[in-house]
Amino acid sequence: MLTMLRMLTARIRAIFRHDADDREFKEELEAHVAMLAGDKMRGGMPAELAYREARLELGGIAELQDAHRDVRGFPRLESLWRDGRYALRMMRRDLAVTVFAVLIIGIGAGASTTVFGVVSALWLRPLPFDNPERLVWIANGASRNLSNQTVQVGHAVDLRERSQSLAGLAAFSPFYGIGDIRLTGSHEAERVTGVPVTQDFFPLLGVKPWLGRYFNTGECRQDAPRSAILSHAFWRRRLGARAGVIGDSLILDGISTTIIGVLPPEFDFSGTFSPGRPADLFLPFPLSPENNRKGNTLALIGRLRPEVEPMAAVPEIEAVVERFSKEAPDIEPGRRRNNFRPLLSPLQDRVSGRFHGTLALLAAAAGLLMLLVSANISSLMLARASVRHRELALRMALGASRGRLIRQVLVEGLILSCGGAAMGLALAFLAIRFLASLGSAGIPMLHAARVDGPAMAFSALAAVLTGIGFSVLPALQASASNPQEALKETGRGVTGAGSFMRRAIVVFEIVLVCVLLSGAGLLTRSLLRVLNVDPGFTSSNVITLRVDPLRERHSTREARNAYFDAILQQVRAVPGVEALGLTDALPLGDNFGWRGWTISAIDGSTSRANALARMIDAGYLSSMRIALKAGRGFTPDDRPVSERVVIVNEVLARTLWPGVDPLGRLLEASGRQYRVVGVVDDVHYFDLERDTGPEMYMLLQQTGDYQTVDLVVRSAVPPEPLTPAIRQALKRADPTLPAVEFRTMDQLLDRSVFLRRLIVLLLAGFAGFGLILASLGLYAVISYSVSQRTGEIGIRMALGASPLAMQGTILAQTMTLAAVGLAIGLPAAWMASKAIRHMLFGVAGSDPLTFAAVAAVVAIVAALGGYIPARRASRIDPLLALRSE
Amino acid sequence: MPREEPDSSQRSGILRGTLDLMVLKTLAQMGPLHGYGLALRIEQLSENALRVNQGTIYLCLVRLVQKGWITATWGPSDNNRRAKFYALSKAGRKQLKIEEDNWERIAGAMAHIMRPVPES
Questions:
Q1: Chain B residues within an 8 Å CB radius of A79
Q2: Which of A541, A546, A543 lies closest to A710, judged by CA?
């Protein structure tokens, strides 16, 4: 062992002492010869003869020196080094080709490393919690409606006590609103977001406080004094990262709240559980009878015991839930338990599972792009290899073996691709930093994307594979040449096989481009379709702001209504304001009125429905330009004390009164009766891609039943310049109102299609780059073949072929390649489109328009790529061409 | 094409590894020697039965130096030229002992196989 180590270090040292060792050995050998010759001369031999014999006896000095080098160093490594140096010399000679190759490998590697970084953050990397693979999300049924995914406090308590497969159970309550809490005190008033969590929440995840401690049992009682744990970001932003904040108080909604802890920077609640909805602080959620009575409030996270298989936990938990639901069907006398149908999934799937399809798509696209890059450089190197044909043949004739030549080509390929990988890493670093900064993008864990060890390893691996990939064909071609033939040929050294290979590669590139282009095309069409969806309202020139009153200051409904009247009156007076209204749920906003109301028709029908209720004032529908289909909107005559009125959307009208005019009918909701005064168009509140369900509008002032209220202001011109005036008007109505975060409806609309737009941009970029590569490949092949056929073309033109006919021949040749590529590529693209079916919106996977467009684009680009060489061919001077033969 | 490490046994027709042993033993007996001296000495001792290709000995010496069994220093030779003198190191002395034992074991076994003692 020690000996081996000594040898290894000695050999490594020998690499660096190459020249010195050579010199020393030469001197040693010369001494040897001198001594041997000296002995011979003493025996009476003449000096000249003695020296000659001495040399002979020693063996060839040059040969010995070679052997000596091999013995003392790493012969393979050193010849690899020599290959590398040779390759670098060759690359410097073809600098343009080298730069081009490194550039496109770099772009390809950058794209795929970026995609890898994102895939790794969202999918491959475990969640940043203790043993995240043991964490499960326990949903309540498979509904997308939030209140159907959550459970009652009683369920959580019973499940925690009785389940044998769970080591722990914690929950947060997802029904918190963005900016629901008003923070007042020494600084400017602002809205903050507080997430209610159970006592076990942070211990269960294994998130250790950065400062302070977890909630204790006392703080999690119903009537306990208020306490909060702060997010790291909020602590830095609002409290200047002061270490002494533990024990201090914040005034939240006018109530003094003690800070008991600060979370570590790497814990990002919103990024993990609720992307795009930043969480500033965490408040204890008591598992109390009071909260139990509130209905489904908790989103459950369980930690499985170490020995329990996730699959085995499912029936056990189902059985436990069934048992306690049967044993104690009432949470208190007269109040039944809500339904609980436990549905387990790994927390990781819950967090990012719905993005896996998108990620797989991007990964596939990046893979195709890398193949394209590889194919392109492969044909580039093939072209160069045939230029260097004679050089290689010469080396072979001088004794280089096939293996040696193959290795030479591979080394060149690897050097190129490593250069490309380095550039790719730099690009990926920038791209990922940009993507991670898209904080409000609504993509979980994206903030954690970075170029880390695995990403670098991936980049290196991709580079090596690409390098080998694009070197294989040139290497085989290089070594397949017969040196005699090659050296005999006077001019062009191209073999038929090489040119066939290059054509095949170009066809392959066109096939790949077809797949990329059609994918990008289909998704672009989908995006356009989504953007074309009528949201049910007009987003332009509308600006919004949270304005809900402090309940502590405006404790009665009358006081709150007066507060709203004051706000409306002040803002209406601002010049430029055209219309304004109030709502508790902005379309495509953050708080979308998640609560489903069970309603039933009183007259005209006996139907029942589950509808979402929006609380609005008299001005909302016209400010948003939500179309009235029948009846009337709310008016100032609908007073808090007059008859309860409701406006239904078309879906609800059809559901409750199929085939019957709903106007003037009565419906019952929450034990109260409402008269239908109007029917309005369906509005997309959640996203543009899903159909709207049954919804209804009630008068805010009548019900008083709202969590948040947004002011909606429509102006005749783009509304941004109005914000200072609106802010001043609001200050006059309520000096404590945080009037900072204005948002336009256009912004909300943009945000709702953000992900789709991002994917389309990425894919279109990939496809465009691919198209450039393929057209360059085509151009290279055609122009190479023109240059090879100069003589032939010259003869033809001398025999009377017109330049135009010549041009036509070359173009036809190009178009044949493109046609073959399309013939294979379009069916391939059609097959590939099946894989993205779930991401299409409003277009079929076989959309003829998209495929026709792809064919047209490829044909046009091919024609351009073939035209330049064709023109060159038509300008060949027959005399010159023939003379060069 | 990467050249295989030349095997000294191919060149001299000596059993692989025995040249190492011969060099070590010679250095142990004679003290420091230069390459030429070693070659001469081995030829003499083996009574010219083993004619070592003189160059081969240098390849063997490099390996032994790298293994740390012998050391090399420049010094003046008899005819006032600079020559490299090789000497056994401590590790080399240990290795020599191991290889000698090894050799005797193999040589003994070979002797038995080649000339079996007739059964009585």
A1: 2
A2: A546
- As a whole number of angstroms, the distance between CA A42 and CA A883 comes to 71
Counting one residue from chain A and one from chain B, the pairs whose CB atoms sit within 8 A come to 83
Does the pLDDT of residue A546 top 50, yes or no? Answer: yes
For residue B79, which residues of chain A lie inside 8 Å, CB to CB? Answer: 34-35, 38
What separation in angstroms does the CA of A186 have from each of A87, A225, A237, A379? 68, 21, 14, 69
- Specify the pLDDT at position A370: 87
The answer, for B72 touching chain A at a CB cutoff of 8 Å, is: no
CB A21 within 8 A of CB B16: no
Q: Which of A13-22, A471-480, A643-652 has the highest mean pLDDT?
A: A643-652
Domain locations in chain A as residue ranges:
2-73, 80-131+355-493, 132-354, 499-531+748-885, 548-736
Encoded tokens for A207:
């998130």
| Separation of alpha carbons A215 and A203, rounded Å | 10
What the block records as the tokens of A144 is 């997308």
What's the rounded mean pLDDT across residues B102-110? 86
The verdict on A401 touching B (C-beta cutoff 8 Å) is yes
How much of chain A exceeds pLDDT 70, in percent?
Answer: 93
Interatomic CA distance for residues A686 and B43, integer angstroms: 97
Residue A594: DSSP 8-state: -
Report the C-alpha gap between A28 and A32 in whole angstroms. Answer: 6
Residue of A nearest to B1 (CA): A404
pTM: 0.70
CA gap A652, A597 in Å, rounded = 12
The 3-class SS string of A709-730 reads CEEEEEECCCCHHHHHHHHHHH
Helix axes A389-397, A356-387, angle to 10 degrees: 70
Question: How far apart are the C-alpha atoms of A157 and A135, rounded to whole Å?
Answer: 18
Judged by CB atoms closer than 8 Å, whether chains meet at A64 and B3 is answered as no
Cβ distance B68 to A70 less than 8 Å, yes or no, reads no
Give bridge partners of residue A613 from the DSSP assignment: A696
CA distance A782 to A779: 5
Q: Give phi and psi for B88, each to the nearest 5.
A: -70, 135
Give alpha helix (H) positions in A533-649: 557-572, 620-624
Q: What is d(CA B61, CA B23) in angstroms, rounded to the nearest whole number?
A: 8
Q: Is the ipTM of this complex over 0.95?
A: no
Please, is A821 exposed, middle or buried when counting C-beta atoms within 10 Å of its C-beta (0-12, 13-18, 19+)?
Answer: buried
- Which of the residues A4, A12, A28 would you substitute to probe the B interface, choosing the one with the greatest number of B C-beta atoms within 10 Å? A28
User: Residue type at A701?
Assistant: Q
Total residue length of chain A: 885
CA distance A281 to A196: 9
Question: What is the DSSP pairing of strand A194-197 with strand A281-284?
Answer: parallel
pLDDT at B48: 66
Q: Which residues of B touch A64 (CB under 8 A)?
A: 55, 58-59
- Name the pLDDT band for A646 (thresholds 50, 70, 90): very high
Domains of chain B: 12-113 (1.10.10.10)
Residue A429 and residue A310: Cα distance in Å, rounded? 37
Are residues B25 and B95 in contact, defined by beta-carbon separation less than 8 angstroms?
no
Q: What's the pLDDT at B9?
A: 39
Is the pLDDT higher at A44 or at A736? A44
Look at phi and psi of residue A612 and say left if phi exceeds 0, alpha if psi is from -120 to 50, else beta: beta
Q: What is the pLDDT of residue A1?
A: 67
Question: Cβ B67–A6 below 8 Å, yes or no?
Answer: yes
C-alpha–C-alpha distance, residues B44 and A86, integer Å: 48
Q: Which residues of A touch B55 (CB under 8 A)?
A: 29, 58-60, 64, 67
